[in-house]
Design brief:
The protein has 246 residues and is an alpha/beta fold. Helices cover 30% and strands 27% of the residues. The strands form two sheets. An eight-stranded mixed beta sheet has the order 5-4-3-6-7-9-8-10, with helices on both faces. It has a two-stranded antiparallel ribbon with strand order 1-2.
Length: 246
């Protein structure tokens, strides 16, 4: 049977921002609100070169390209099927001149991009350790949720290698792994400057956090919190602004 006949079905989703939309594979792995929050909390200045580690469908790269004046965004992804999808989404949204999708292992980022070559790294990595919890049947889904091809320590080490002095890593991860992530960042010359705890509702425990860490940054860290939904299920005003529909 032809590979195209075996390919999973595509769905086009509206990103609700300036006419952007994203092709996704519903049967594999679709982006979550965590990726959107990360894209909107990352501070990207005019002229910055950005690396998106594990781009998947390309949602973070597309949003950063649309909402900032980044000069170039390198979207790194190891899975061939997701690389092809990310490239499709880059072309679909008219961003070929600013986003380059690279099929590679994150461990090789510094060899491909160059050491200390980018100003910002963004990453929405797999949340679960290899072998933990229930494994998904399809390899593509497992790789998106579990550390089957890379681990947290390796991702952070590679981020530090490609970041310029003073460059920033923005990462979203599960609260249960926050101490581990901070330890790896400190060991890789990345000073954690801000932690944003993300609460589904004000009476629910924080589920994920978003870290901002600076390469060779100084002492001092701030804590922030974001409540996504009000008690009635509507989105809080701050969350609305971060999701930045228009």
């Amino acid at each position: 049977m032809d590979d195209k006949e075996n390919a999973p079905e595509l769905r086009l989703d509206d990103l609700q921002y300036k006419g952007l939309s994203l092709w996704q594979y519903p049967s594999l792995y679709c982006f979550t609100s965590d990726a959107v929050l990360l894209a909107n909390l990352a501070k990207v200045k005019k002229g910055d070169v950005v690396a998106d580690f594990g781009t998947g469908s390309g949602v973070i790269a597309v949003l950063i390209a649309a909402k900032t004046n980044a000069e170039k965004i390198y979207a790194l992804e190891k899975q061939e099927i997701m690389c092809d999808l990310a490239r499709k989404n880059v072309v679909h949204n008219g961003l070929s001149g600013r986003i380059e999708v690279i099929e590679c292992d994150i461990a090789d980022a510094d060899k491909l991009l160059g050491k200390e070559s980018v100003g910002v790294v963004v990453c929405n990595p797999p949340y679960y350790k290899k072998g933990s919890g229930a494994q998904r049947e399809r390899e593509e889904i497992a790789a998106s949720r579990h550390e089957t091809t890379c681990d947290l320590q390796g991702i952070i080490k590679s981020a530090s290698a490609v970041l310029k002095w003073g460059g920033a890593l923005y990462m979203v991860h599960k609260v249960e792994r926050m101490a581990e992530a901070i330890g790896y960042m400190q060991a890789s010359s990345l000073a954690v400057k801000k932690i944003t705890l993300v609460y589904p509702k004000k009476d629910k425990p924080a589920d994920v956090f978003i870290a901002e860490a600076k390469k060779m940054g100084g002492d001092g860290m701030t804590l922030d919190e974001l409540v996504v939904y009000n008690d009635d299920g509507t989105m809080t005003e701050r969350a609305k602004k971060l999701y930045s529909k228009e």
